[in-house]
Amino acid sequence: MSTLERTTLRKALAAAGEAWILEHWGERADEELDRMLGQLTAFYEVYAERFGERPDPFRLLEDNPLKGAAFFQIDTLRLSDAFKCAVWRILLGADVQSISLDVVGRRHMRFRLELATPYGATEIFDSQDPSDFRLLRHLGTVLVKGKLDLQGYYALKRA
Question: 116-145: buried (b, 16+ CB within 10 Å) or exposed (e) per residue?
Answer without folding.
Answer: beeeeeebebbbebeebbbbeebbeeeeee
